[in-house]
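Input (structure):
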């Protein structure tokens, strides 16, 4: 009885360990990357998205919002790799950029970045956004764009972008969303508002699956007719192996040139010097003359042939 109790306790411990390990693996590799369905503050979150100044290159009717800042590598990668896939599903990606606020007295944005953010919020210029993203951050000088520093109106726009991010972060945290950039918000097929802190690319397939977006766009498809056609485009003969290559059509061999001063050779006449022909019409014997049998030679100890 005691041994039975000991083995029962060990089996229970092993079961608990396996169950805990399985749950951790499910959460670590799958569950934590799933989007969060917003059940609280939906109206306030939607109002913030509607009032923010976003830029878009078009693509469809249903909007999807991507919120981030210029120096966020994950945001740039998401826009670069996922935007075309979402457009292929009839989704309109709308990008909202903000300038990060100072942290402990240290600026987290440059003057050129603040000027560009203010210009994007005021004009929603998609071409300006593309030029900015395609230019390395250290080389972007915001040439031709009015400065935001020292300009009350544009400085207020920059501050509005920061307040938008702070308020949205507060509401999403209350709804259970882990805040990482880019923040992606959309409505699924049933109209529910969903959000994702998508710094990790393992969360991106969930968004594509939810919106029926393809995993790849612009992939070349092989031509089935060209792949199945035989070599050279010729039709194989009936009963032949279609995988075998057809016999090539060789050109006709031209006749040999007649030497200068010689009479032209009649068709079918034997070629001089060829086997079986002789000058003056004399036929040569094609059968070789048989050789004589060797005669034995005798020496002292052996006979040789």
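Output (sequence):
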């Amino acid at each position: 009885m005691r041994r039975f109790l000991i083995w029962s306790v060990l089996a229970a411990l092993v079961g608990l360990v396996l169950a805990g390990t399985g749950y951790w693996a499910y959460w670590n590799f799958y569950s934590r990357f799933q989007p969060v369905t917003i059940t609280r503050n939906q109206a306030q979150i939607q109002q913030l998205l509607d009032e923010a100044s976003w830029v878009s290159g078009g693509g469809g009717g249903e909007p999807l919002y991507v919120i981030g800042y210029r120096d966020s590598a994950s945001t740039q990668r998401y826009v670069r790799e996922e935007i075309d896939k979402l457009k292929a599903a009839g989704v309109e990606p709308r990008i909202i950029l903000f300038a990060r606020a100072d942290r402990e007295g240290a600026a987290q944005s440059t003057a050129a970045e603040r000027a560009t953010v203010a210009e994007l919020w005021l004009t929603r210029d998609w071409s300006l956004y593309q030029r900015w993203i395609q230019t390395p951050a250290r080389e972007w000088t915001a040439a031709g764009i009015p400065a935001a520093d020292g300009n009350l109106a544009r400085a207020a726009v920059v501050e509005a972008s920061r307040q938008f991010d702070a308020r949205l972060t507060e509401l999403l945290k209350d709804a259970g969303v882990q805040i990482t950039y880019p923040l992606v918000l959309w409505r699924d097929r049933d109209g529910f508002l969903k959000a994702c802190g998508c710094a990790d690319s393992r969360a991106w397939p969930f968004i594509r699956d939810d919106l029926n977006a393809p995993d790849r766009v612009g992939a070349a498809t092989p031509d089935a007719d060209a792949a199945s056609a035989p070599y050279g485009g010729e039709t194989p003969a009936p009963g032949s192996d279609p995988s075998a290559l057809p016999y090539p059509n060789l050109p006709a061999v031209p006749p040999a040139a007649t030497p200068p001063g010689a009479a032209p050779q009649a068709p079918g006449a034997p070629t001089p010097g060829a086997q079986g022909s002789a000058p003056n019409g004399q036929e040569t014997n094609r059968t070789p003359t048989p050789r004589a049998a060797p005669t034995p030679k005798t020496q002292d100890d052996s006979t040789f042939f």
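Notes: Confidence is low (pLDDT under 50) at residues 220-238, 273-279. The first helix runs from residue 2 to 29.
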